[in-house]
Amino acid sequence: MTALLEASGLTKSFADFTAIAGVDLVLPAGGITAVIGPNGAGKTTLINLLTGKLLPDQGRITFAGSDVTRFPASARVRAGMARTFQVTNVFPLLTVEENVAVPVLARAGRSLDPLRRIDSMQDVRATAQRLLAAVGLGGRSADVAAALSHGDRRLLELALALACEPRLLLLDEPTAGIASGERDRVLEQIRSLAAPQPLTIALVEHDMEVVFGLASRVVVLHQGKVLADGTPQQIRDDRRVREIYLGDPSVAPPLARAAPSPGPPLLRGSTSPGVEAGSASRAGPSPASRPNASQRWA
Ligand SMILES: Nc1ncnc2c1ncn2[C@@H]1O[C@H](COP(=O)(O)OP(=O)(O)OP(=O)(O)O)[C@@H](O)[C@H]1O
Ligand SMILES: [Mg+2]
Questions:
Q1: Which domains occur in the chain, in start order?
Q2: Cα of 294 to ligand 2 centre, how many Å?
Q3: Cβ-Cβ contacts under 8 Å for 61 (sequence gap 6 or more)
Q4: What is the pLDDT of residue 91?
Q5: How far does the centroid of ligand 1 lie from the alpha carbon of residue 131, in Å?
């Protein structure tokens, strides 16, 4: 099996605090890999290292056969990596279609010209429409992004990332802040993106049920290291993982839902609707010692 991405010995410190401590990670082409771990485990830092927002202190990253370790983020996007952020990141005053036109034009070496309306760029509009349809926003092109629900904004972010025509899509908490009624719709779109095309997806996710229902593989980060890496079933059965998350190795996490359904999940992250998860210091209480430890998977 050829790896699409291979990271070895990745290490990143902030002053004297080591956020990522020697992580090895291989992502084969295809499938959905979920990265979970307690607050402050290093999940976002890992995505930042893989996508070039941060450079590692040590370690090596190869992507599609090239060593991209020192590549800036823009070069990694050109090589076929795209990402979305833990905090929603769209242009609120542009329409949905104009939002997507920005990366479509950038990829074509053009830019959004205020003197030339997008209406006259049929090729750009056609690409934008295709991307919006792929994320289920086909009917929302003319709406201003600020008017979208949080879930729809997350879908728009997905379309922006897809405009880069990635081979690898990295999603940092794609359901953060989304009301439970909208979450299934976003997840269904993510699932559909991975299914028919050769797109590889790695995502950070808080909802344990979501992780087990969506991902074919789960990587557990803890204190900047890979604690466990396996199928959802293997992770569910892993004693160390149970100890970290539930504080009791004899308690099994719930089974994943077979298919999305309305209504609140059995367990979900502590992120409130409309509020992004913040980074907690590792000096804080361990997940197992927090009162709601059993509700915190990320
Ligand atoms: N730029 C930075 N400077 C200093 N410390 C940082 C920086 N970025 C992250 N950290 C610290 O590194 C640790 C890992 O942070 P990171 O954001 O990767 O965690 P996370 O697993 O994504 O957490 P969360 O679930 O809260 O999003 C945290 O203790 C955080 O405070
Ligand atoms: Mg994070």
A1: 3-91+164-297 (3.40.50.300)
A2: 19
A3: 5, 6, 7, 10, 49, 50, 67, 68, 69
A4: 93
A5: 32
